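> example.struct
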């Protein structure tokens, strides 16, 4: 009894290790495994017997559609939830990764991790603008944009609750520094006036951001005069003149400086000159690097959460598959015993039951992936970003995530079919033939 218990425990541990290895296998390794199995099935006598036995079981699936649908629907649910959760994290990170580029620098106070805890004094701006590597516009003015970030409350379109939104003050050169930002409706704000342009993503998530509407922010009336799109995190923001925003909220310093450099070499020159100037104890990074770091923790949390929830659901799907396949083996006991009596050995019977279960798992994985793609791919949502304001982003159901979901489905099928398959192979022929 003790030996049997230890053997079962060892089998479970080895199976768990095999599943982990299976999940992390790259696509070419999975393809290689599939090719080896296919060749074995087609070229060996045992493999051909396994295929013949599997055809018999698969042909009877329509007569057992109620039980087999438990496997398909259960696995589809696991894959759908897993892919949707991972698509949320990938979409959020992709939005931040696409924000900025490698030739635009963001300057923060030394040691600051984000704009919210950064302070840059006004007298430092001319020093920053005079450093080598800073690009100049057509008017020969340095492309430098002193910026402020203010969190304000807006009303969500989804449920009517108050949510945080980012109200950004930008300098006159912001439209050239942030060259992805394009006005698609209305016009740019005018410096010195309480006018706002809003991102397309913010307009889709918050009420009252249509062109011509008036907002009360900081006890002042602001007018929405335009809508812009950037295809990145700035789509979630509202923009205005930085000096107007500073006077409204009594801000005497800036939080960040965005600088357009003359390219990769220009950025290196700018960063080196910044470090060499003792008057400027500031940190410099590319805007791409900065925004990528801002999303790192949340993306990891969403990925871990998705896999954790998927694992819990996978346990349920495994038990459903085990129950269904054990029932299928029991109802087909005479059929399996007959095959054993006419010459089918244990291995073909095991492989036949496994192929049947893996086919159902494959159908469930494909169904779950298609449902996740149809419902969630491109679906826009917002979440709280590192600056305590909402970031609007889209779920991204990529082929990589669909492939991950499919591997999870096949892993569930492997566990759910293995033990019933072993039971079928060990079924005493004389006992099984007497069952009705």
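> example.seq
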């Amino acid at each position: 009894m003790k030996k049997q218990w230890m053997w079962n425990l060892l089998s479970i541990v080895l199976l768990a290790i095999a599943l982990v290895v299976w999940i992390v296998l790259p696509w070419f390794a999975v393809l290689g495994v599939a090719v080896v199995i296919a060749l074995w099935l087609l070229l060996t006598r045992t493999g051909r017997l396994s295929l013949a036995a599997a055809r018999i079981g698969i042909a009877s699936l329509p007569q057992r559609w109620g039980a087999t649908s438990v496997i398909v629907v259960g696995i589809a649910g696991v894959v759908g939830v897993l892919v949707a959760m991972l698509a949320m994290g990938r979409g959020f990170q992709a939005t931040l990764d696409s924000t900025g580029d490698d030739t635009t620098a963001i300057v923060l106070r030394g040691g600051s991790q984000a704009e919210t805890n950064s302070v840059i004094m006004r007298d430092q701006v001319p020093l920053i603008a005079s450093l080598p590597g800073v690009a100049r516009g057509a008017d020969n003015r340095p492309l430098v944009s002193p910026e402020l970030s203010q969190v304000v409350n807006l009303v969500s379109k989804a449920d009517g609750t108050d949510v945080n939104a980012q109200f950004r003050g930008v300098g006159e050169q912001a439209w050239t520094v942030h060259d992805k930002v394009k006005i698609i409706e209305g016009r740019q704000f005018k410096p010195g006036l309480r006018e706002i342009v809003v991102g397309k993503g913010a307009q889709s998530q918050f009420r009252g951001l249509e062109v011509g509407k008036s907002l009360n922010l900081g006890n002042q009336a602001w007018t929405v005069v335009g809508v812009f799109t950037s295809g990145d995190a700035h789509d979630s923001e509202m923009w205005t003149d930085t000096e107007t925003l500073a006077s409204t909220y009594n801000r005497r310093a800036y939080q960040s400086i965005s600088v357009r450099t003359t390219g990769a070499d220009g950025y290196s020159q700018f960063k080196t000159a910044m470090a060499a100037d003792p008057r400027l104890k500031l940190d410099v990074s590319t805007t791409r690097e900065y925004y990528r770091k801002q999303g790192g923790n949340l993306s990891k949390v969403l990925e871990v959460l998705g896999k954790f929830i998927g694992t819990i659901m996978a346990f349920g799907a495994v038990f459903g598959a085990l129950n269904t396949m054990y029932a299928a083996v029991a109802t087909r006991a005479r059929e399996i015993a007959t095959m054993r009596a006419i010459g089918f050995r244990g291995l073909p019977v095991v492989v036949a039951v496994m192929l049947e279960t893996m086919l159902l798992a494959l159908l469930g994985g494909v169904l779950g992936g298609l449902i996740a793609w149809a419902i969630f791919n491109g679906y826009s949502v917002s979440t709280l970003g590192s600056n305590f304001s909402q970031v609007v982003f889209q779920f991204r159901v990529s082929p990589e995530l669909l492939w991950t979901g499919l591997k999870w489905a096949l892993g569930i099928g492997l566990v759910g079919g293995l033990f019933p398959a072993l039971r079928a192979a060990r079924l005493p022929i004389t006992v099984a033939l007497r069952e009705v």
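> remarks
Residues 23-97+295-434 form one domain.
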